[in-house]
Amino acid sequence: MFDPYTRLEARVGELGNHHRKYLKNISAHKDTLIDRLEACGKIDQVHFRLTAPDLASEMDTVMAVGRNVEEKLTFLGCYYALQFLNMNISAIDVLALNLATSDDRYTVYKGFMRQIGNEFRALTACHMDKLLNLFLDKNGTPEYVICGVGTRADQDDIDVGIIDDGSRKRKDLNLAVGRLQHSMLKQSVPLHLYLSEHVGTQSYSASIAEYNDLLKKEIQDFVIITEMLGAAPITGSNHLFRKFRREVTQRYYYQRQGDNRFHEGYLRGLLGEVRSLLIRRMKTNSINPKDDGLRMLKGLLFAGKSIFNIRKVNAWDILKQLGERDPDHTEIFQTLDRSLTFLEMFRFLYQLFVVQEDEIYVGGEDTISNLQSVAKAMGYQDVGVIKAWDHLLIHYYEHIDGIKDPIEILLKDVIRHLERISVFSVMLSTRQLETQYEGNLVIDFLKASRFFRGTKFWDDVLGALETGDGQLLERFVTDFNSLDTERRIKWIAQYADWSNYAFMVLMRLLVILYQNRKKVASEKLFNELNEASLEALSQSHDVIHRITRIFNHYPKLVNNYLLALSEEDQLRFKKLLEGNVWEEEVAQLRDHLVNLCQLHCCSNRYFKRFFQRIINAYPEYIQYLDNTDRLKELAKGLFGKIDNLKTFREKKDQLGHYHDIEFFRVGLETLAGAPIEQTNAEFTEFSDNYLQTLFDICKQEVEQEREGKLKTEDLLAVFAAGGHAREQAFDDDYDIIVLLNSSDEALRKKCTTIISKMNTELVKRGTLPHFRFAERYGHYVTLFSELEELFESNKEDSFIDKSQILGARMVVGSRRFGKAFEQLIIQPHIYNKKDTYIQQMAQEIFARHVNENGVKEDGFNIKENSGGLRDIEMVMLMYKAALHIQTPVSMKLFDELSDKIPDKGSELKRLSGIFSFLKRLRDIYRLTVAAEDTIYLQNLDRVSPIMNFKDSSTQSASQQLMMAYRENMKQGWSLVSEFISDIGHHPAREIRDTAIQENTP
Amino acid sequence: MSFRTEIRLSGEGGQGLVLAGKVLAEAAAIYDDKNATQSQSYGPEARGGASRSEVIISDDEIDYPKAVNLDLLLALTQESCSRYWKDLKDDGILLVDSDSVKDIPEGSFKVFKVPIIAIAEQEVGKALVANIVALGIITGLAKVVSEEAVEAAILARVPKGTEELNVKAFKAGLQAAKDLS
To answer: Do B43 and A194 touch (CB under 8 A)?
Structure first.
């Protein structure tokens, strides 16, 4: 005969391993139970293979055949196990059938979840009832009620709260609950008594008075409150439950007239969590339906429940009622309903089929195989190479993503409600502050906030301090300043104490104080409060977690906070992040934050300006501080999207972001020690890209404004001059030459409009454009005829202008233009008059050093001093003129020259090495110290590690770098002198003497 | 004479301490026929980074479900060690992950320093099973639940396909406990 137990065992094998304990129980006791029922003639009154129509009666029957308490318990446990397994197997069979016959998957899911929740509740309630009947002394029982406070369908444990009447009989109840707890752990689903653990005093249950006492102190525990608001009686006194609702939970609902502090505190707790979860980044190696979606969704539903006084406890019922009360948001509630259904269903089935854990690690063959079972049960099928679990996960991510917008909309409504009912509303309203409020804001706020201690949502208060005309913030600072020293210290310590439970709030307050320090004279307060906060943080637990959590959710805030800190405090803050962390996600966040601190500590304001703009626009990019490849991809993406944007404004802004990210990226690479050749090439690439695209956008804009095409291609060109022409990174100005090969004034005017628009954008990037020749002629655009006139005048200093032209590199313009430029300007005015040009340049080099009194001990100019960058660049220009070379002054030019004058190859190689060293030093100095050319020994401690200098026993790394720097300059000057003699065909000494003679007063 | 053993497993979220607590409680109650309760950090506490799971095992009835006088404290992080060591009995056991907990509090309790996470990573091949390695060590040190019961409870709790890995982790923990004695 086919054994039904074998069939059951086979079916249970489809489910998770945690079902083994039920099989163990059945296997051990079913035969005895059946024998006993048969012996008593009651076998037909009990269902073993099907779910029972009358659980209570069948449980009574099963217990009745036990000869003693132990047997009764054993038989009841065995029967429960059979019913529990039958219930689950039958439910998934019905689910499969319904999914096969229905077009609406979500209706089936919701029906399933409600059905299984009700059946499970009925089964466990009945089981608990029978157990308690067995354990309780009928005469010694107090009035009590056991409430379910969690999700009805959850089978990993049953969250319960036990309320008693506080009488002496509690002891018996407590003993019975202890036995109940043990029996359920062993035979069914364990109880989770979180409420009692927190409220009770050495017992499983607590009285209404004890709940009241605790809740006066523990307002921040919104989880307890949510459980209480969601409580539904499982077994016991309905009268006591109603009393509990009246005397304990009623206070958390909004009351039109009356004290809403409890309601406000609950909302502050809930909103803090919802907002944090909303901006939480999903983990990459795991998913968690609770943390990813359900918690924020349910948090918001319970906020609505408490605002609208909804007494329903089931999430779908609450959603329905919210929809009825707020018909404007019907669509939102429908979206949330579907996602709630999907997520609950997925979580339930994962726990049924795989393991009773919330964290689901995605990856690995076992996980995939387990997810496949869940997907199949949810009605997904393999389609071609796409597996059912792929579909499931895609839908999962869609739901998680899809609920964020609706939740944000509802969140705003809840915040508006909070602002209306808050006890702080008088203090926060500027109008009421003037007329109705006479206290000290510092003291009164903190006193009032004590009631809400530990809650994390203070956006309304901080927002009021941050916005408006600053009146509230000014009052806050003034009230602080009115305190005598002793009281000031006391209140600062009390505010700093927030770092122990809501550091984010304190951090935001500190940032507000710092950012408004000039407006409301808050610098002193900022310094004192910050000092106290850092001190308090260093003494507290879980600092890495708490800080990384804030960083994860509010990277911009943390960045602004770091910006407010002195370098010393930045290092103190960084030190707080030291220590082992287990969670990969936390460790990763910590690393990103340490990188950010490092960047703040080692970069100067010039670099921070770009960095700041990026963080403000894209705070999420902070995570890529150590991943410049990713930053490059993001920049490329932004650049690629420019064409899709509609307005010119949007295009220009997007292009600006592209520029800033690329600037930032190349800066990071430089700081990480990338070779100068690489950083210069990458800088030039994005910088040219930026200028070319900006030109195009501005040209299109002018064409649209003037309703006609502008034919500028062969006539107009934009040249980079100076450092940009030399393909040199990190110049803080942008030398530009705009040339027009036409005398058409109307065309010049149109071109000027384009360049004027470009100028506006360049200024916004913080790189100051200098339009060469513009001051001389009063136009951004210089005509060929004007240049010809200038060079024909043969002025003494025309070699300076010629150098600009000779060193310029065309960024925008056609090849035809380039050819015309060479033929009409370069050839006749520079190449054909090269001897004069070279002589003037050589003399200029010496003349510039006539009054240079040697090298200063602690600081000298990397660009202008003897052997510096300017000298080398001028020598290179002289060679360009002498040998008619068009290549810009860059490393490529050194190579080209070596080919043309091989007997100077070794000297050129040495000079190129010196040029490279000096440029790298200058770049790093500009990013880490200051965008200036005078290098000071005392500032080199930030530069030397990046340039791989290390402390030795006799000299610091900075001293060694300074020595290397001086040696390079010295050798550079020696080589420059040698090259001058070579190009000028005169001994350098002769040229120098002439220069000295002509430049000595 | 009856006994009541209170064990607290503490560390960070993601270390599987709640699951370890459930396994230990079920091992005692289902497979060793003892009395047991299990509770875990919950609410705002659990939504931070910390994680805590408590198991009380007794051969008598358990009238109070909260662990207040610990016989054994497992601390996988410095934070959890610093926070909970004061709840240890004078003759209790403090078991720490030696790579994560450097600052060991002074007291009359016994201290066992074991590289639990490193064992999971290096000997078993997955840091994720550090909780099960810890269970092995606790089983060996506390001797309140049998090895067979804990192994059976592990198999009845872990996801399908990971049974072998978890048993390997448990045995590595048992061996580590033996090496301590």
So the answer is: yes
User: Average pLDDT in the B44-73 region?
Assistant: 77
User: What's the rounded Cα separation, in Å, for the pair A826 and A806?
Assistant: 7
| DSSP annotation string for A947-1000 | TT----SSS-HHHHHHHHHHHHHHHHHHHHHHHHHHHHTS-HHHHHHHHHHHH-
Q: Residue A607: what pLDDT?
A: 77
Torsion angle in degrees (nearest 10) through CA of A884, A887, A890, A891: -90
Is it the case that residue A640 has pLDDT exceeding 70?
yes
Domain holding B125, by residue range, is: 4-180
Taking CB atoms and an 8 Å cutoff, what residues of chain B touch A355? 157-159
Q: Provide the Cα torsion A579, A582, A583, A586; round to 10°.
A: 0
Helix (H) or strand (E) holding A771: strand A768-771
Alpha carbons B38 and B24: distance in angstroms, whole number: 9
| CATH code (residue B17) | 3.40.920.10
Which residues make Cβ contacts (< 8 Å) with residue B106, sequence separation at least 6? none
At residue A493 the predicted structure's pLDDT band, cuts being 50, 70 and 90, is: very high
CA distance A305 to A80: 35
Question: Measured between beta carbons, which residues in chain A are less than 8 angstroms from residue B61?
Answer: 175, 178-179, 182
Instruction: Give the domain ranges of chain A.
Output: 1-135, 261-405, 424-620, 712-828, 840-999
Q: A367, A582, A586: which to substitute to probe chain B, counting the most B Cβ within 10 Å?
A: A582
A916 close to A891: Cβ distance less than 8 angstroms:
yes
Under the banding of pLDDT at 50, 70 and 90, the label for residue A855 is: very low
Tokens of A450: 């004590």
CA neighbor of A715 nearest in space, from A829, A826, A824, A791: A824
Quick one: CATH architecture of A261-405? Answer: Up-down Bundle (1.20)
The model's confidence at residue A277, banded by pLDDT at 50, 70 and 90, is confident
pLDDT tens figures, A882-904 = 888 888 888 888 999 998 888 88
Using CA atoms, how far apart are residues A171 and A22, in angstroms rounded to an integer? 31
pTM of the model: 0.72
Residue to test with chain A: of B47, B55, B121, most A Cβ within 10 A: B47
Residue holding tokens 């001028």? Answer: A874
d(CA A74, CA A72): 5
Quick check: A995 pLDDT over 60? Answer: no
- State whether the Cα torsion B150-B151-B152-B158 is positive or negative: positive
Specify the CATH number for A840-999; select among 3.40.50.2300, 3.90.180.10, 3.40.50.620, 1.20.120.330: 1.20.120.330
* Amino acid at residue number A191: L
Count of beta carbons in the 10 Å neighbourhood of residue B127 = 17
Q: Sorting pLDDT into bands at 50, 70 and 90, what band is A332?
A: very high
> Where are the extended beta strands (E) located within A531-633?
none
Q: A369 touching B, CB under 8 A? A: yes
| A780-795 mean pLDDT | 85
Query: Which of A70-74, A798-802, B43-47 is most confident?
Result: A70-74
Residue A961 to chain B, least CA–CA distance (Å): 39
- What is the count of structural domains for chain B? 1
- Looking at chain B, list the stretches that DSSP marks H as alpha helix, in order from N- to C-terminal side: 17-26, 43-46, 78-84, 116-118, 130-142, 147-155, 163-180
Tokens for A830, please give them.
């520079």
**ipTM of the shown complex:** 0.85
In A170-221, which ranges are continuous DSSP H helix?
Answer: 170-187, 194-199, 208-217
Chain B interface disruption, residue of A70, A186, A292, A553, most B CBs within 10 A: A186
Average pLDDT over residues A32-61: 92
A222 interfacial to chain B (CB closer than 8 Å): yes
Q: Which amino acid is at A159?
A: D
